[in-house]
Amino acid sequence: NAIAQASTASGAATSTSQRILSIQDVDNGQILGFGADLAEDHPGFHDPAYKQRRTWLAELAKTHRIGTPIPDVAYSPDEVATWDAVLEELSELLPQHACREYLRCLPLFDFRKGKVPQLEEMNAVLRATTGWSVRPVAGLMHPRHFLGGLAFKHFHSTQYMRHPSKPSYTPEPDVVHELIGHVPLLADPDYARLIQSIGLASLAADDKQIWHLTKVYWYTVEFGVVREGDQVKAFGAGILSSYGELAHMASGGAALERLDPFQPQPRMSYKDGFQKRYFVLDSFAEGSELLRSYAASLALPESLRGDASVA
Ligand code: NLE
Ligand code: FE2
Predict the structure, then answer these.
(1) For the chain (length 311 residues), average pLDDT per consecutive 10?
(2) Most exposed among 15, 167, 168, 251, judged by the fewest C-beta atoms under 10 Å?
(3) Which ligand is nearest to the CA of 158?
(4) Which residue has the CA at smallest separation from atom 8 of ligand 1?
(5) Alpha-carbon distance 226 to 263, whole Å?
(6) How far is Cα 304 from Cα 296, in angstroms, rounded to an integer?
(7) What are phi and psi of 282, to 5 degrees?
(8) Predicted local confidence at residue 1, as pLDDT
(9) For residue 181, which atom of ligand 1 is closest to its CA?
(10) Distance (Å) from CA 149 to ligand 1 centroid
(11) Which atom of ligand 1 is least distant from the CA of 173?
C-alpha cells in the first residue's frame, strides 16, 4: 500500500469538499512521497540504475485506468534475487508468527522463488474469494484517496522492488510488502470486512478525521497483532513483510496495547525502524465491529456525536 503521513500533505489540495463517491473519484496520480524521488537517506539514493528503475515504474503506475488490465512488470534478475532472499527469510518466521487467517490464505497465491508475482495474478485469486482488487500506484497517495479506495474494495499497491542492500527491512512500501504483507489477507472475508470498514469511515470523514483514520489504519492494517489463545500473532502487513520486524515482534520487543479507535492515536513513523508498540485486537470479527461502530459515529451529524442512544 501507500498511505501518506500527516502534514506531508503540503500543497495537496484534496479536502472534504472533494467527496469520494465511487472508485472513479480515487486519484492515484497525486503522490505525496515514496515515489521516484528518493530521500538522501534512502539506500538507493546513490544508485542511479535503481533510481531510473523507480522512475520508470512510477510512470507506468500513473497510466493505469480503472477497468483496464494491469501491465505485467518484467522484473530483472537482480529484482528476482531480492524477492527470493526475502521469501526465504520470511518462510522461516511466518508459520509461527503470522495469524491463522493469513496462513490459511497464503497457499492460494503462487509465491515461490524465481518469479515475482504480477498484480493481475493476485487479482485472479482475490476476484474468486472476496472480490477485492489491487491496483498499481507510484508511491504514497493522499490518504483520503488511499482510504477511499478501500471503501470500494480497491487496494493500491506499489510495484517497485526494495533496494537489494537491505532485504529484511525497508521503511517504505514495495512490491514485496504489498504482495506478501497485504494481499494474502485480502482473501479472508473477516479481514476484508475489517479493512473495508476503515475505508467506509473515510468517506464520511472530515480532514482531521482522515488523519486520525490514517493512524487507525497504520496501527491495524500495517502493524496490528491479534490474539490467538495465549499468544499474539501478526496480521499487520508491515510486520508480515519484514523479517526484521517479524523477529522484533516475535521476541516481545514491543509493548502491546488494546486498540481504541475512539481515542487519539500515537504519532506514526516510517523512519524510526521497528515499532515500539503494537495494538492488539481480540479477533478480526471484534476488530471490524469496533471499526464499524467508529465509522457509524463519523456519519452522524456533529451535534449527535458521542450520544450513546444514537450511535
Ligand atoms: N518495513 C516493511 C518491510 O520491510 O517490508 C515495510 C513497511 C511499509 C509501511
Ligand atoms: Fe502497507
Answers:
(1) 46 58 88 80 90 92 92 96 98 97 97 98 98 94 94 96 94 95 96 91 89 93 95 97 96 93 86 89 85 75 47 27
(2) 251
(3) 2
(4) 173
(5) 19
(6) 11
(7) -75, -35
(8) 58
(9) 5
(10) 20
(11) 8
Q: Is the CB of 211 under 6 A from ligand 1?
A: no
Note the ligand closest to the C-alpha atom of 268.
1
The span from the CA of 226 to the CA of 235, in Å, is 7
Left (φ > 0), alpha (ψ -120 to 50) or beta: where does 300 sit? beta
Alpha helices in the chain (DSSP H): 48-62, 77-97, 100-105, 119-129, 143-151, 175-176, 183-186, 189-204, 207-217, 237-240, 243-250, 284-299
pLDDT given for residue 285 in this prediction: 83
Cα of 222 vs centre of ligand 1, distance in Å, is 8
| Span 51-71, pLDDT tens digits | 999 999 999 999 999 989 999
Ligand 1 contact via 222 beta carbon (within 6 Å): yes
Distance CA 154, CA 159 (A): 15
Q: What is the pLDDT of residue 302?
A: 56
What's CA 50's distance to the chain center, in Å? 23
